[in-house]
Each structure stands twice: as structure tokens, then as C-alpha cells.
């Protein structure tokens, strides 16, 4: 198993994975123009955003798992949703994140118990990739194991901690919107609120790992810059076969990041 992991990781490195460290964006690009109340979305998106409570955890796990299993391109490409064992494993992983996370919920103001969007924020540390590999090694479901291996690569290989010279970053770990509430700006507003929350908490840098094109577009609109990208067909196993090939337009994984206090970065 260890040899398979090493082949999977290092073969993808040899396939040309390189950091896409672009120049710093202009001050105008960094600024998020948002004149709305910090607790309410715009008139075109009639929902409220609030911090999650401990009692929300079961609903959050169920919501995020359902979106990932049935609608996230990478997860669907790996056929994770076809195994009940993988469903429980994915739920366990989400559940582990919540106690130490900073989660924002978008809820229907008329039905406040109805979640229409979730942004799970957390501390991103340089050892997270290794921990994902350790979790993958303990996972029985082959599809979920591959997913965790891919997530470990995305966490580690951009080297954002070294690039920004920081011990930890704020990470938007999961961004999910209800299918019947999409194209209303919920994902963008949750991302913007997460950026504001990260600043309030004292983080200096923020990252967002985007395994689908739609979340990458949201990150760009929110002012995050693409720092690293890799085509899915470069992620190959020991037989040189692609591990996952989501349908277009989801052809690349992209890692976006931004300095939350750019004037303080020299």
C-alpha cells in the first residue's frame, strides 16, 4: 500500500506538477466590494448567513455529504457514491472537521431550519497532507481512499505555508450550495463572509482548494488568486492510468489563495 501511495504521489510530481505562483494582484483586485450587512445576503439572494452552532453538526454533515456524493465532479468521477461504506467514511471525515472548524451557514429566512449553503473553514497546517494519507490508509473503501490521496496531494504540493512563510492559513475546506438554490450567489457570498471571518480571527492568509471549475470561478470572483493547478489526467496511478477524469469543464484542480492583509506583506 505504501508503495502504491508513493507511486501515486511521485508519478504525479514527475508528470509536471508545478506551482503556478503568479504575481501579486493589484490593490483593486484584492479588495472585495461588498456593501451588504455581514449577516444578510443581497436582495437577489434572500438568505441569512450565520455561524454554525454545535447543534447544527448533524444537519451540516448530511448536507455536505449529499452535495459531495451526488454533485461534486471529482467524487462522482471516483464513483464514491456507489458504496455505502464510503458514505459513512466520508461522513466521519466531515464530522471530524466540525469541532475545530469555523463554519458559516446560509439559511432560508422563512424556514431558518433549512440550510441552503455551507462553508466549512478550518486551520490549514503543513502536516495536513500527511494526516490525510494516514486516514486514507485506514479507509477500507477503495474509492474513498483514492479521494483522500488526491486531497492529500492538493493540500501538500502547493507548498503555500512555505510560500507565505506562515505556520497556518485559514482554509475554506468545503463549500456547498443546495442544488435548488444555485446561481443565486450563495457560494460567492459564503466565500466573501469566510474571508471576512478569517480576517476577524487574525489569520493573515487564506486558501481554497477547488476540485471543480465552478468553485474555482467563485474563488476568483471573491478575490483569491490561483497559485497552483494540475490537470486531472496528470494524476496517475502506478499503471500510468488517470485516477479520476471528471467531465468537462472540470478538467483541472486549482488551489486559490490570498493575503488577507496585503499591505502588511513585504
UniProtKB/TrEMBL annotation:
CDD domains: NAT_SF. SUPFAM superfamilies: Acyl-CoA N-acyltransferases (Nat) (SSF55729). InterPro entries: Acyl_CoA_acyltransferase (IPR016181). This is N-acetyltransferase domain-containing protein. It comes from Anopheles gambiae.
Amino acid at each position: 500500500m505504501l508503495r502504491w501511495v508513493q507511486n501515486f504521489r511521485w508519478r504525479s510530481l514527475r508528470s509536471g506538477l508545478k506551482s503556478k505562483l503568479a504575481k501579486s494582484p493589484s490593490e483593486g483586485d484584492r479588495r472585495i466590494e461588498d456593501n451588504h450587512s455581514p449577516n444578510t445576503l443581497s436582495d437577489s439572494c434572500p438568505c441569512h448567513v450565520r455561524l454554525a452552532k454545535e447543534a447544527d453538526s448533524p444537519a451540516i454533515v448530511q448536507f455536505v455529504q449529499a452535495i459531495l456524493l451526488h454533485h461534486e465532479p471529482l467524487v462522482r468521477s471516483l464513483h464514491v457514491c456507489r458504496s455505502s461504506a464510503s458514505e459513512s467514511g466520508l461522513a466521519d471525515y466531515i464530522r471530524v472537521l466540525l469541532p475545530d472548524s469555523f463554519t458559516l451557514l446560509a439559511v432560508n429566512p422563512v424556514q431558518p431550519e433549512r440550510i441552503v449553503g455551507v462553508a466549512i473553514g478550518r486551520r490549514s497546517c503543513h502536516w495536513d497532507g500527511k494526516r490525510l494519507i494516514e486516514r486514507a490508509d485506514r479507509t477500507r473503501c477503495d474509492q474513498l481512499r483514492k479521494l483522500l490521496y488526491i486531497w492529500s496531494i492538493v493540500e501538500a504540493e502547493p507548498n503555500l505555508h512555505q510560500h507565505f512563510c506562515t505556520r497556518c492559513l485559514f482554509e475554506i475546506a468545503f463549500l456547498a450550495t443546495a442544488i435548488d438554490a444555485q446561481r443565486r450567489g450563495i457560494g460567492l457570498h459564503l466565500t466573501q463572509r469566510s474571508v471576512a471571518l478569517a480576517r476577524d480571527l487574525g489569520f493573515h492568509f487564506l486558501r481554497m482548494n477547488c476540485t471543480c471549475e465552478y468553485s474555482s470561478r467563485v474563488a476568483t470572483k471573491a478575490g483569491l488568486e490561483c497559485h497552483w493547478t494540475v490537470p486531472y489526467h496528470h494524476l496517475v496511478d502506478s499503471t500510468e492510468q488517470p485516477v479520476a477524469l471528471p467531465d468537462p469543464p472540470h478538467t483541472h484542480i486549482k488551489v486559490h489563495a490570498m493575503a488577507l492583509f496585503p499591505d502588511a506583506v513585504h
